[in-house]
Amino acid sequence: MNRKRLKVLGYIGLIIGFLVLLFFAVGPYFRMFIASFMTVEDFFALPMRYLPTEWSTRNFKSIFADPAFSNSLLNSFRSSLVATAITMVLSIPAGYSLASRRFPGRRKMLVAILGFQFIPPVVLCVPIFIMFARLGMLNSVFNLSLAYPAFTTPFAVWLLTGFFATIPPDLEEAAQIDGCSRLQAIYHIIIPIAIPGILAATLNTFIWVWQEFLLAVVMLTKPSQHTASIALSFFVGQMGIDWTGLMAAALIFSLPVLPVTYFARYFQQGLSMTGSKE
């Protein structure tokens, strides 16, 4: 077998592997999209129907007929924005300081920050619940947003530290020679260069908070304060599961993730630059 034929077979193998990965990655979302427009009869029909006999928006109408679901989406959006803003306000200066300043215990602090990522979120839920309960801060979407940075800040700091470390310190020094203060140099020089890393950390934080369920269901018991992840669980009842309604709700719930496809190049660049320089 000559080299040309081996190269062709290699390309064919890559294409087949890519198609298999694409099937498992996109297939569930495609099925969810199709099922959200199906009737119950089409969904449970045997043999299985891959397309609905009649495209129907009944599931979406029934979802939005209940104002509780719309309110849960709004609660999720609020908590995600607040938690993301707090996380970035804490992470950007922390990441810059750890990357550009040398001080005793810096390396141990970086290891400790990375170590927080290995702590299961369920371990922190109980102490956070007890603390917020004693402070009378339960059943509040805003207060829930104050708890999320405990989970999201370590990864954001770790990511931004690696990214800030790739920026040559000469740029800041040159700006200071030209008359800028340190804060002005950071704001006008360092931050614009670090936009890909900041976007990567922001997107990761927003998505994590948007889909979080465990802490939300523990801290929010009032229906008016439920987030969308909690609202999705109500489609699963003791007597059965509203599959078509659940698919439609899940499709709506996944819409905020779509901007990630637009900013994917920034996310990839931010992650690839992380940790490339100590």
Task: Describe the overall structure.
This protein has helices at residues 3-36, 40-43, 58-65, 67-100, 106-115, 121-134, 141-147, 149-164, 169-177, 182-193, 195-211, 214-219, 228-233, 243-253, 259-262, 264-273. The protein has a single domain (67-273), classed as Orthogonal Bundle (MetI-like fold). Helix 1 packs across helix 14, helix 4 packs parallel to helix 7 (141-147) and helix 11 (195-211) packs across helix 16 (264-273). It is globular, with a radius of gyration of 24 Å. It has 278 residues and is an all-alpha fold. The longest helix has 34 residues, at 3-36. Mean pLDDT is 83; it is low at 274-278. It has 16 helices and no strands.
pLDDT averaged over residues: 83
Structural class: mainly alpha
Q: What's the number of structural domains?
A: 1
Distance between the termini: 47 Å
| Percent of residues in β-strands | under 5%
**CATH class value:** Mainly Alpha
DSSP, total strands: 0
Query: What helical percentage do the residues reach?
Result: over 70%
Integer-rounded radius of gyration:
24 Å
